[in-house]
Amino acid sequence: MPTLNKTVRSVADRYRKATTPRPDGLPRRRVVLLPLLALAAVLAILVGLGITGSSTGYLNQFVSNGADSRLIAGKPQSIRSDEWFVQSTWTVSQVEQGLPPRNTSFPGGMDATVQHDLPTLDWSMVFHPHLWGFLLMPIDNAMALKWWLPAFAMIAAIYLFVVTMLPRRPALAAVLAIGFFFAPFFQWWYLSITFLPVAWAFLLMATVIWLIRSGKRAERYVLSGLVGYGAIVVGTSIYAPFIIAATWPAVGFAVGFVLTRTSGLITGFWQRLKRLTPLAVAGGATLLGLGLWLMTRWSTIESFTSTVYPGQRLQAVGQATRADLYSIMGGVFSPGLGAVNGVPMGVNASEGSTFLLPGAFLVLPLVWLVVSGIRRRRSVDWLSIVLLGLGVVFVAYLFVPGWDALSHLMLLDRTTTGRLRLGLGILSLLMVVVLVVRLNERRDEDVEPKRLPVWIIVMAPLTALGANLIVARWLHMSGSPLVTQWTVWIVVLVLFVGAVLFLTLGRPLVGGVALLIASLLCGAGVNPVYVGVYNLNDTKLVAALKVVSSHDSEWVGIGDTVVPTVALVESGLHSYNGFQSSPSDDMWSQIDPSGANEVVWNRLANVSWAAGSGAPAPYNPAPDQIHMTFDSCNAFAQHNIDFVLSERALAQPCVDLVRTVQEGPQTFRIYEVTPAR
């Protein structure tokens, strides 16, 4: 036993020595780089094996009678159609066409450098590092890089930020970063446009700290350059709701950190502000880069913003309901979200997803610490004050009407009630980190009491427990199986309340581990473990399409499933099927020459067809759906369509059956359009 104790003490001493910060308070190089190198090694392994979390395997049931050999664990999520039906389908199409800047599937083509996060041979690819694999690798490995790099960039940025704030706690930094990645919100919204703004936000916050504290020019300029580059990466993703939600917490942190006198060895505000000069230079370069990108793609962006849906959508303040509040605070109940398709937390699992929000229950401890610091005539903790104030602004945006002009000035109206959850998640994590920092400072400065008062230590977890029990009661009254069948929420609740307790007790690593386990229970099983992408180009069906088609043949796909659309788009052939971000003028001038139905087709939507008679007659079964009827004898078909792919036999006089293909459980028919008699 004495030998064991001696070994433990020796290991602890080595750990303390290894994590001792530099004289400027920043972490040493090995504390920063070793975990990031380990993360890079994991990324390399996953990419080398072609492992993704893609739900493209959802297509297997339509074209195969057997199990999907690419599926390693879990199951595809049909609700993740933005990934498996939209982005992945168009990505395969790009590969088939040779990565052109303009995809030619739709008549008139589509700007592939802006829409659907697609790889191209355009100069702007320099700002899409997650797509570089398509220039060098087989498609499965390239898809793996696309899948993992944005998420791993976020984990790395969070680790860098937390370990910069807490240089003696690299283990806590790793635990918080990984736990945040497994948040249900990220897993149900698993896209690069979700992760990249968060990665940039945490990189920006970490850079602000290094600029104020570090005297090394290389560190200051390298980090500032990365922030500038990252800003262009995020800006070219063009999804404002997530960008705005992630940017405000980062800006709030930067302002609060610069205002707080104890943020570094430099005590003067203007001196601290001057230290951000490299960031300002990087910001200027960012504006030039983004400006060039926007100028060369303005017509595409203008086309998207001028659509009927979603158009230039602005969200009024105070639109959230009581159900929205319960849903936001209901992260504990996420394990069964997919089984109930998100109801009643949202209209589907993605919309109902949220974060575990320990920061919401650390408001009282932070307020007490701010007041205590003022009473001790210490410098004002502007960082905590700004973060708390930003939390008030976010809550007001959700629930308080009447200040739309200010919201518009802050660009908050360009996010939405649902997307602002991303900002709340970031803000919660910031509050956790700042609380740990402030409690550490009290111990280091030998301030009494070193711990928070007992009544606060008791109130914080009790409030967390009470809030979640209120949500549980609401779910029970709604008849939701989230509380009656998916009882693992009880374990998650215990872990969550325990995390809040240990954070207020000054035991952050224990609290962080509890949050990590809770996040794993809530989010780890959402996406499958999958090899590469399910590619319909490997099927007999698409092979037949390519044999029948000539170079300039135009197609229409008809069916009750998504297979005709996916097959035509992924094949790289020319067709009138697919998901459009904005309409192709050439295509819709052929379908609707008079423009009488523009309100129907001028939108972000999937374009699909069914057999019918007469003109195409577009209509919207849902805001993001355009459905039309196909009559082979109609003038539109006679002038524009060469072949039809159908899941059913067509009883129309102006088509001839060319080929029948049996693919798994389905029989597909290929018809050639013939002249009307």
Automatic annotation (TrEMBL):
Keywords for the protein's UniProt record, in alphabetical order: Membrane, Transmembrane, Transmembrane helix
Cross-referenced InterPro entries: DUF7654, DUF7657
Domain DUF7657: 36-436
Pfam families given in the database record: DUF7654, DUF7657
Membrane-spanning parts: 31-51, 147-166, 171-189, 195-212, 221-244, 250-269, 276-295, 355-374, 381-400, 420-440, 452-474, 486-506, 513-533
The name this protein goes by in its record: Glycosyltransferase RgtA/B/C/D-like domain-containing protein
Coiled coil (residue ranges): none
UniProt superkingdom: Bacteria
Domain named DUF7654: residues: 536-675
